[in-house]
Every structure is written in structure tokens, then in C-alpha cells.
Design goal:
Pfam families: COB_C (PF25079), COBRA (PF04833)
InterPro entries: COB_C, COBRA_pln
Oligomer: single chain
Helix content: 10-25%
Organism: Durio zibethinus
Protein name: COBRA-like protein
CATH class of the largest domain: Mainly Beta
Number of strands: 28
Membrane topology: Lipid-anchor; GPI-anchor
Length: 443
């Protein structure tokens, strides 16, 4: 063998290894690409409407372009870093949580906020009319694109200026104040256009910048938030959520409430500006949300599934909850009872993923743990000739997501199986056949 061959082979191996580690190191572990919603993000749009040497009028819009992931209370808390000594002189549609030190501004009216790193929150519903703007005053709540496309946006306006009358510069280091979201740097885009006079005249912003924020479940929580259990009419066993799906009893910080007990008064104290603490019922899986998928019935041309979502969190109601399921037979879904449903065509013609959510004023609120802490529905699906089967766990979903977070699934080898009567019958016939053959040989 030519020794030059080994030298070339070793060099190619070393180069390939270096390229692999370079690509591995260049990918951020916090990146939140979602294959079920590949274009989903929250965009912060910053429009410069008017500009002068001492003051600038700005409109800020927060747009939730995610198909099924929404923002519930306490809502978004937008933050950024000024690059100079800017201050917010007035605001409409939102407010800063702190005024800060405004001593550098002498005489006259003081600014609304002088913080170097302001934190902005949405106004609550029912705010005074002179403080409102279009798409404001929702308490920071943003719906997803599918669930309620009329409530996916928030907006506010502000007048900003600096003590040294410097030109306008875009702030940096944007944050949404929601666990799991990370924001990129501002990017200047084509100026926004606005219609007036019944659409006969168009005006446009002096400049527009977009800040894109994406969600990562790994950044949001170090442990999962939901799990899935299975059962079927053809098998008496129930496949529970995997043990320690979200946490394990006895671990530090893994507190839970035993059945029959209620949370103490100290645990029930809630800060309206913060997410309520997760205090779940003591279970083997320790998840606040459990989704149960039950294959209920089989007909000649259809089959029926029952889905139950249990809230085991003793401290929290889930408003505008939603459930995303991936199953190959969803393309033949005929009827959904008690839930809204919308297929997700994230890859064009492929229709194996769908989103379920509650009916407004009926079951769109998943109450905290208790007798009413569950919602359920039934699905009627048509049997596709050539693909439908109950064998090998085909009747169960491939993925389940609750409020955009991946749920822990049971291992495939534990799925409920069909009764294996055919194998026993073949075995008995084989034993009889060989017994007769042996008897004939001996005779």
C-alpha cells in the first residue's frame, strides 16, 4: 500500500474533524429553531416618526409571529440599553416601571423615565383614554397567530430626547422579560408606511428597525413542563408518564403538595408582576401538565380518540392554553368535539400536525389542580386504507406540545399492544404437528 495514501487519508480525517468542531462551536446552544413553526418569532418593530435636534417621536410595536406559542400574564416586559444619555419624556400605551434619577435635567417638567436600562410594561385594560394607543392596554398578553390573529400585536408611542441634544441612535441589548426568549441586534429595514385620509394618502417613518426574538425551551426551563400517558380499549394496562419526567421527589427544590393537602398561605402569596411559582401535586412524574391520549373505539371506517389535559399545578390557571399533536392520521380528521382545531401546514402539502385550543368562555381557561382542573375532547378520524393499523403503537401521537413546550413521551416499547392471540394459536398448531410427526417416526 502506498504510504502517501495514509498521509492523505489522515490529513482528510483531521480537516474533517476540525470542520465538525468548528460548526459545533458556531451553533449557539440557546438557538430555538422549531421545526413545527420554522418561521415563528416575536418581532420588535421600532419606527422613528419624527426627529429634531432635541426630541424624537418613536412608535414601538411587538408582533407575535408564532403559530401556537402565546404570551400570557404577567405579559411582556420590554427592556433595552440606551447608547447615550437618552430619557423618555412621555409615553402613551405603556409605561416605565421606574422613573430613575432625573437630576441631570434641571428646571421644568421631569422626564417619564431617566433609566439607562428602562423596563417597559403594557397598560392594563381600562386605562385612561388619553393614555391609550391602538393595540395597547392588554396587560402584556399576546395571542398566537392561529388562536386569535386580532390580538397578536401590541404597540406604544414615546417621546425621547437626550440632555446633550444628540442625534437619534438606536438602543441595543433588547429583552422581552419572558423566560426562554433571546433577542438579536436591531436591523434597519424598509421604512413602515401608514395610511391616512381614508387610504388616499400614505406617509412613512423616517427609519424602521426590527429586533427578532426567538424562543428556546432549554432557556425557558431546565426541565420539561408536561408529560404524556397512553391507554387503549384493546389493552387493560395504562402507560403512565415516565417516572421523573419533570422532576423527582426528594430532589432539592422539588417541592410538591400531597393529595388531600392544600398549599400554605405563604406559598399562595403572588406577585402580579411575576410568574406564579409552580407547585404541583406529588406524582411519580412531577409535571404540572399531564396529557392523556386514549384510543377509545374502533368502527368499520372510523376510529375515536379521547384527549384529556390535566392541570396538576396548584397555583396557576392556564389562560388561552393550546395543544399541538403530531399524528399521521390527522390528515383524515373528521370531527373534533369541544375544542377548536386548525391543521399546521408547516411543510406545504404534509398535514400530520394540528393545533387544539379551548372554546372562548367555555374551556379556554384550564383551571388549577382540582375537580375542574382538566379539559377534554374526542376526535373522530377516518381509517385510511393501506396505512391504518393499531399495531406497533401507530394509534398514538409522535409528539405532543402544550403551550409550545415539548412534552415527555413514554418509550415506544411500553405502548399498549394488541392482544397477541394469533401467535399463541400458531404455536399450538406447531406443537401438535411436530408431536404427530414424532409419533409417526417412532412407529
Amino acid at each position: 500500500m502506498n504510504p502517501f495514501y495514509f498521509v492523505v487519508q489522515r490529513s482528510v480525517y483531521m480537516v474533517s474533524t476540525l470542520i465538525f468542531f468548528f460548526l459545533l462551536s458556531s451553533v449557539s446552544p440557546s438557538y430555538g429553531y422549531d421545526p413545527l413553526d420554522p418561521y415563528g418569532n416575536i418581532t420588535i418593530k421600532w419606527d422613528l416618526l419624527q426627529s429634531s435636534p432635541d426630541r424624537n417621536d418613536v412608535k414601538v410595536s411587538i408582533l407575535n409571529f408564532q403559530l401556537y406559542r402565546h404570551i400570557e400574564r404577567p405579559g411582556w416586559r420590554l427592556g433595552w440599553d440606551w447608547t447615550g444619555d437618552e430619557a423618555i419624556w412621555s409615553m402613551q400605551g405603556a409605561e416605565a416601571t421606574e422613573q430613575g434619577n432625573c437630576s441631570r435635567f434641571r428646571g421644568g417638567q421631569l422626564p417619564h423615565c431617566c433609566e439607562k436600562k428602562p423596563l417597559i410594561v403594557d397598560l392594563l385594560p381600562g386605562a385612561p383614554y388619553n393614555m391609550q394607543t391602538t393595540n395597547c392596554c392588554k396587560g402584556g398578553v399576546l395571542s398566537s397567530m392561529i388562536q386569535d390573529p386580532t390580538k397578536y400585536a401590541a404597540a406604544f408611542q414615546m417621546n425621547i430626547g437626550a440632555a446633550n441634544n444628540s442625534d437619534f441612535t438606536m438602543p441595543e441589548n433588547f429583552t422581552l422579560g419572558i423566560p426562554g426568549y433571546s433577542c438579536a441586534k436591531p436591523v434597519q429595514v424598509a421604512p413602515s408606511r401608514y395610511s391616512s385620509d381614508g387610504g388616499r394618502r400614505w406617509t412613512q417613518a423616517l427609519g424602521t428597525w426590527n429586533v427578532t426574538c426567538i424562543y428556546s425551551q432549554f432557556l425557558a426551563s431546565t426541565s420539561p413542563k408536561c408529560c404524556v400517558s397512553f391507554s387503549a380499549f384493546y389493552n387493560s394496562s395504562i402507560v403512565p408518564c415516565p417516572k421523573c419526567s419533570c422532576s423527582c421527589q426528594g430532589l432539592p427544590g422539588a417541592t410538591c403538595v400531597k393529595f388531600g393537602e392544600t398549599p400554605s398561605l405563604l406559598q399562595q402569596i403572588k406577585d402580579p408582576n411575576q410568574e406564579p411559582p409552580s407547585l404541583v401535586r406529588c406524582t411519580q412524574h412531577m409535571c404540572p401538565i399531564r396529557v392523556h391520549w386514549h384510543v377509545k373505539q374502533s368502527y368499520k371506517e372510523y376510529w375515536r380518540v379521547k384527549i384529556t389535559v390535566n392541570n396538576l399545578n396548584t397555583m396557576k390557571n392556564y389562560s388561552q392554553w393550546n395543544l399541538v399533536a403530531l399524528h399521521p392520521n390527522l390528515k383524515s380528521l373528521t370531527q373534533v368535539f369541544s375544542f377548536n382545531y386548525e391543521p399546521l401546514y408547516q411543510y406545504g402539502y404534509i398535514n400530520d400536525t394540528g393545533m387544539f385550543w379551548g372554546i372562548q368562555y367555555y374551556n379556554d381557561m384550564l383551571l388549577q389542580e382540582g375537580e375542574s382542573g382538566n379539559v377534554q375532547t374526542e376526535l373522530l378520524l377516518r381509517k385510511d386504507q393501506g396505512t391504518f393499523t393499531f399495531r406497533e403503537g401507530w394509534g398514538f401521537p409522535r409528539r405532543i406540545m402544550f403551550n409550545g413546550d415539548e412534552c415527555v413521551m413514554p418509550p415506544p416499547d411500553q405502548y399498549p399492544r394488541l392482544p397477541n392471540t394469533g401467535h399463541g394459536a400458531k404455536f399450538s398448531l406447531s406443537v401438535i404437528f411436530f408431536s404427530l410427526l414424532l409419533l409417526i417416526i417412532m412407529c
